[in-house]
Design a protein that fits this description.
Number of domains: 2
Number of helices: 6
CATH class of the largest domain: Alpha Beta
Strand order of the largest sheet: 2-4-5-7-6
Mean pLDDT: 78
Strand content: 15-25%
Shape: elongated
CATH superfamily of the largest domain: Histidine kinase-like ATPase, C-terminal domain
Largest sheet: 5 strands, mixed
Number of strands: 7
CATH topology of the largest domain: Heat Shock Protein 90
Structural class: alpha+beta
Length: 291
């Protein structure tokens, strides 16, 4: 039998837990609100970049056509041009052609990044729909990677993907699940960059992404060979208000909200395996059919 003091203590504990939950969800809403605002800003910037980029891409194509026409004209006038001038013109046009091709390639790459920015900043849709999980992982991995390279031009990493074709499509909210992946990838690349700064050119940053279809479930493993996490960080990583992101890094979503999205909204599990100074691996298990 509990005495009055024990009952009072239990009641207080219950009230404290309820308050924590309310604060947690309130904080989640604030974070998501900030995320939406940042998405709106990102979309505006992407649209502003898109216009001059279209001019760059279009004129690069035109320059390529002009160079080909000039080369044809030179070939037709070979008999009127001395060998030294012809050699000089050929070399110069070769450089121009190469430079134009580089502009086109990088223009297309920027265009692809902008498309992903616009996709990432799109208004959130809550409905579940069939989603190619392997494709979603691939797209968000490279969105995060290009974001890191835009911030640190010298950063480079090997991305090794082993996607199980049996994973196929799953019922999910791709926008929310994409935010979870992006958050994990951002943390991974941040850890790789920090280790690279310490160890220098001898260190090769590596990110591994593996998916497996196992008895009605899907296992996702995202592993980096970065700085790892100390035990005290791992024990708190999924707690409300706790984040492993460096100031200004990551998406602002936080691992606590990522845990909520995986466990509550998708009926899955997420855990961390790590060794400080060596690696960190996120292991996510999702049901093929949403709960």
């Amino acid at each position: 039998m509990m005495n009055d003091e024990d009952k009072t203590r239990q009641q207080l504990l219950k009230e404290v837990q309820e308050l924590k939950q309310r604060l947690f969800h309130s904080e989640n809403e604030k974070k998501l609100s900030v995320l939406i605002s940042l998405g709106t800003i990102a979309a505006g910037i992407a649209h502003e970049i898109k216009n001059p980029l279209n001019f760059i891409n279009n004129y690069a194509e035109l320059c390529g056509e002009f160079i080909e026409e000039c080369e044809q004209t030179i070939d037709q006038q070979n008999h009127r041009i001395d060998s030294a001038s012809q050699e000089c013109l050929t070399e110069n046009f070769s450089h121009l052609k190469h430079s134009t091709q580089v502009i086109r390639e990088h223009g297309k790459r920027i265009d692809h990044i902008i498309e992903k920015m616009l996709l990432h900043s799109a208004p959130e849709k809550r409905e579940l729909k069939p989603t190619d999980l392997n494709y979603l992982l691939h797209e968000y991995a490279y969105l995060s990677y290009h974001g890191m390279r835009a911030q640190y031009f010298s950063f480079d990493a090997d991305i090794d993907s082993h996607f199980d074709a049996g994973v196929g499509f799953i019922e999910t909210n791709p926008h929310k699940l994409g935010h979870v992946f992006l958050n994990i990838f951002n943390n991974a690349f941040d850890a790789l960059h920090k280790k690279q700064q310490v160890q220098g050119i001898g260190f090769i940053p590596k990110l591994s992404i593996v998916t497996k279809s196992i008895k009605g479930q899907i296992e996702i493993r995202i592993k980096d060979n970065g700085i790892g996490m100390p035990e005290e960080v791992v024990s708190q990583a999924f707690l409300p208000f706790y984040t492993t992101n460096s100031p200004g890094g990551g998406t602002g979503l936080g691992l606590s909200i990522s845990h909520e999205i995986i466990s509550r909204e998708h009926g899955g599990k997420i855990k961390i395996e790590t060794e400080e100074g060596k690696y960190t691996e996120f292991i996510i298990t999702l049901p093929k059919m949403a709960n």
